[in-house]
Amino acid sequence: MLTRPKLSGGSTLFAVSFGRVGKDGVVSPPLPPMVDVRGLHVRFGEVEAVAGIDLQAYAGQATALLGRNGAGKSTTMRVLAGVVPPSAGTVLVAGHDVRTETLRAKQAVGYCPDVGGLVPRATPWEHLQLSARLRRMDDWETPARDLLERFELGDVAHRVTAGFSHGMGRRLSVILAALHAPDVLLLDEPFDGVDPIGVEATFDVISDARARGACVLVSTHLRELAVQACTTVSVLRGGSAVATVPSGEMAGEEGARAYRGLLD
Ligand SMILES: Nc1ncnc2c1ncn2[C@@H]1O[C@H](COP(=O)(O)OP(=O)(O)OP(=O)(O)O)[C@@H](O)[C@H]1O
Q1: Where in this chain does the record put each ABC transporter domain (predicted)?
Q2: Which atom of ligand 1 is nearest to the CA of 77?
Q3: 58-84+96-263 CATH pick, 3.40.50.300, 3.30.70.920, 3.30.70.600, 3.40.50.1000
Q4: What is the ipTM for the molecules in this complex?
């Protein structure tokens, strides 16, 4: 059965679901979710893009959203990023309601959209500069240079993005999402068309974010990369979450069969 997380996810899953066990054996209350989605509906006219999603994601964890085209992954990410308002339901990001505390929720988030977001006539460095100014960051140049080097974009840091390949654009979008070390990192299709160096660099960004206690959500079609990058997998179908399981349950041949079973 793939309807409920098992404890095979280890101590993190135990801690967030049932409480944290201290050295003295005392169990403290479970951590509140960093992303808390309850009964989310999103309608675009006649189309119901999201039809009642419930999703909880926690500090130090990475959750993958998997599902077929049109399952509602990107729309859910857009709601979390504060780009699309919910039609119904409650969405809290780092404790802030995206409907009533939109600015605070947005400040907590770093968002790599699935498409767009880059200015063709601006360079990567100018994108980073603008992002840092908007967020009133002081010491941004060193982390910006570091990220550009990790994603092998240092050599093109001062070239306009108009001539960038698809994969170069994806890599820059991940960098822009990660620059300010957000509490909630939302990566929509970060691996799409990205070469192995970019994939490795994205893995590093995800594990660094988890290590500093951020909550990461990754929307992707690439099941095996989702399993490698994430602790938890949530499978969406027809605008609803049909299963949320430790990522190990989606690994290998058996995981592929389980995943196909959830999509049919
Ligand atoms: N702005 C919009 N206007 C109308 N319909 C929309 C809009 N955005 C999304 N939809 C519809 O909502 C549904 C869910 O779309 P969404 O992009 O969230 O799916 P997805 O799981 O991210 O798909 P993909 O894997 O193809 O990116 C689809 O039927 C889509 O056509």
Answers
A1: 35-263
A2: 18
A3: 3.40.50.300
A4: 0.97
